[in-house]
RNA sequence: GUGCCUGUAGCUCAGUUGGAUAGAGCGUUGGGUUGCGGACCCAAAGGUCGGAGGUUCAAAUCCUCUCAGGCAUGCCA
């Protein structure tokens, strides 16, 4: 809707420029205004051309304005065009144009805001991902919220999206976990048995050791290298992975693919390695095999195959991304934890070495989360085995609040998560504020139905009766939903949707406070029901994109 | 040392890729409802956009330098 208006205005302005100045460069921009006192749309055309035409902006603007006023067509529904000081030309759109949005929303329903900008392009979004060595933490919860919501948004914009979880089940970390488990088990019989320096300190490892002891007693003590042990270790690894799966599923995230790093070994990794070797970017040194990342701007070369023969995480990740490419994705997006900082540049260098278009892969860091309680930061220490898990967080504040809080902020800044606020049932709590607007509307609709008003046919209501400023304001923000969806997809920014919903909820509450919907006046009631029904639809659509419920009662 | 992220109101953060007088929420202060959900609304106060230059009609936004904080800098992931 807004796009249509923008296009029309752009055409008109360009036509005027052509007529007056007969120049070919017609680059201008038409934007929504920030403030109502500047109308609804404005163009910087006069200022853009001031240099080329060697004429002051106000003078250009004056001529354009006069010309535009002559050529305004009726269907645009422009009330007024005016020139303002620095050289902006402002367009005032008639109420009628805006009010049409209510019917449009109701007719489109859950598809309102959808577009086909993505043209069915295949995108793979990799997020959360982890070693199967312990419970998922709060950063994983943040990544899950952002990744899942972005996928919803991309689908809504016409992309063919797949969600993927990368299981790092083949590396050094898994060995460290197993060593930790063995050590905890042995410590039951020998408290002095040393615990590995970089081991896993969490209590869950101790619990597993106790469990092993319960089943096998001391019989495993001398069988560490045995088959029994191998079975035990894979039993616990798959149990941990199972718990991780349950964590994300309870959080409402459904991955299309759980990708095991193991499946890259040995063949796919070998193939990737051979490709790099053939291109001449590798060499042996100190018994290991290296990648010449310095050729791509790194400060030192990086190891691909370790001295002992095992590939590094870096090598596996190269193979992994080649695999994604081979699976036919037009684009790959990765969300990684803050500890992967250094890894990103290297991965991109490897992609460049392999001749892959830079734009094919986008990698984002999901920054750390500081849990706050009563203004105090809760200390997290993985080493000491104390760290906040995703499960604890969700069970304390709930899925909706957790997701909304993570989605309010852009992913690349650190986040202070106020646990008390997330639980508070008041308008201070943003998630309640938005959900309350939705529930409130549902209650109005229910009330209307109780007095036998037919909500289904409400799109037939007489919209001529809509003219209050609060109503027009609602129309304008509803009309902007499609734009917000597009922008949030384009900039990978789900938090735009959250911000939009907060604003929409605010405008609705204000409207509600000023105007009663269901009254004696039947015609006006119908028109206002159309307004609140379309508002409900947009709230629900937005919440759905965030993966948050839109409750009918609270 | 090097690289990335961040620096905007007392606090937590937006700012549609360069636009007009920089915006919300919380907190503070003062108001509002015989009503369809008060889990609500309105108003006020609060700012050298970390700092200094530069680019141009126009800079929180782009460039250079600089200061502060965070993270990374493993043959871990």
Q: What name goes with the CATH superfamily of the domain at 99-117 and 427-546?
A: Isoleucyl-tRNA Synthetase, Domain 1
User: Any low-confidence stretches, pLDDT <50, length ≥5?
Assistant: none
Q: What is the general shape?
A: globular
Report strand order across the widest sheet.
7-6-5-11-12
- The whole-angstrom Rg is 29 Å
Q: What is the second-level CATH architecture of the domain at 99-117 and 427-546?
A: Orthogonal Bundle
What is the typical, i.e. mean, pLDDT?
A: 89
Q: What fraction of the residues are assigned to beta strands by DSSP?
A: 5-15%
Biggest sheet overview: 5 strands, parallel
Describe what is shown at a glance.
It contains 20 helices and 15 strands.
Question: Please, could you describe this protein's structure?
Answer:
The chain is of the alpha/beta class. Among the domains are: 92 residues, 2-Layer Sandwich (Gyrase A, domain 2); 139 residues, Isoleucyl-tRNA Synthetase, Domain 1; 79 residues, no CATH class. The protein is built from 20 helices and 15 strands. The strands form 4 sheets. A 5-stranded parallel beta sheet has the order 7-6-5-11-12, sandwiched between helices. A 4-stranded antiparallel beta sheet has the order 1-2-4-3. Strands 8-9-10 form a 3-stranded antiparallel beta sheet. α6 crosses α14 and α6 packs across α18. The model has no long low-confidence stretch (mean pLDDT 89). It binds one RNA strand of 77 nucleotides through α2, α7, β10, α11 and α12.
């Amino acid at each position: 809707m807004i796009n249509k208006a923008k296009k029309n205005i752009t055409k008109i302005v360009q036509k005027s420029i052509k007529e007056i100045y007969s120049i070919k460069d017609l680059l201008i921009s038409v934007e929504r205004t920030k403030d109502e006192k500047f109308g609804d749309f404005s163009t910087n055309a006069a200022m853009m051309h001031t240099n080329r035409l060697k004429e002051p902006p106000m003078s250009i603007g004056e001529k354009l304005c006069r010309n535009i006023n002559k050529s305004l067509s009726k269907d645009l529904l422009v009330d007024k065009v005016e020139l303002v000081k620095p050289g902006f030309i402002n367009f005032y759109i008639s109420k009628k144009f805006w009010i049409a949005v209510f019917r449009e929303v109701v007719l489109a329903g859950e598809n309102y805001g959808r577009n086909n900008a993505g043209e069915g392009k295949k995108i793979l979004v990799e997020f959360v991902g982890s070693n199967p060595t312990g419970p998922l933490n709060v950063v994983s919860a943040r990544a899950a919220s952002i990744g899942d919501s972005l996928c919803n948004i991309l689908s809504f914009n016409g992309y063919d999206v797949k969600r993927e979880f990368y299981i790092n089940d083949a590396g050094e970390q898994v060995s460290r976990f197993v060593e930790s488990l063995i050590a905890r088990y042995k410590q039951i019989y020998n408290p002095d048995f040393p615990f590995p320096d970089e081991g896993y300190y969490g209590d869950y490892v101790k619990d597993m050791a106790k469990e092993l002891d319960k089943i096998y007693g001391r019989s495993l003590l001398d069988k560490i290298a045995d088959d029994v042990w191998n079975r035990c270790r894979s039993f616990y690894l798959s149990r941990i992975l199972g718990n991780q799966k349950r964590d994300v599923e309870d959080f409402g995230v459904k991955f299309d693919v759980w990708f095991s790093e193991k499946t890259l070994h040995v063949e796919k990794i070998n193939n990737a390695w051979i490709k790099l070797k053939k291109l001449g970017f590798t060499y042996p040194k100190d018994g290991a095999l290296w990648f010449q990342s310095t050729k791509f701007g790194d400060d030192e070369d990086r190891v691909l195959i370790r001295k002992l023969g095992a590939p590094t995480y870096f090598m596996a990740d190269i193979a992994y991304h080649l695999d994604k490419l081979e699976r036919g994705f037009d684009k790959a997006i990765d969300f990684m934890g803050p500890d992967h900082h250094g890894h990103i540049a290297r991965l991109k260098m490897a992609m460049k070495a392999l001749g892959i278009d830079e734009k094919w892969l986008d990698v984002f860091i999901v920054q750390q989360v500081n849990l706050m309680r009563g203004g105090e930061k809760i200390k997290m220490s993985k080493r000491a085995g104390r760290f906040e898990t995703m499960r604890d967080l969700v069970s304390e504040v709930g899925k909706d609040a957790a997701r909304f809080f993570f989605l309010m902020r852009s992913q690349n800044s650190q986040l202070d998560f106020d646990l008390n606020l997330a639980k508070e049932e008041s308008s201070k709590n943003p998630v309640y504020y938005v959900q309350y607007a939705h529930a409130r509307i549902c209650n109005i609709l229910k009330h209307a139905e109780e007095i036998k008003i037919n909500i289904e046919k409400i799109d037939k209501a007489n919209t001529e009766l809509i003219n209050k400023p609060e109503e027009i304001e609602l129309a304008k923000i509803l009309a902007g939903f499609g734009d917000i969806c597009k922008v949030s997809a384009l900039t990978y920014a789900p938090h735009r949707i959250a911000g939009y919903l907060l604003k929409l909820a605010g405008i609705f509450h204000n409207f509600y406070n000023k105007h009663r919907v269901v009254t004696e006046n039947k015609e006006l009631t119908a028109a206002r029901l159309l307004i609140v029904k379309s508002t409900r639809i947009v709230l629900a659509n937005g919440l759905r994109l965030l993966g948050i419920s839109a409750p009918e009662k609270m």
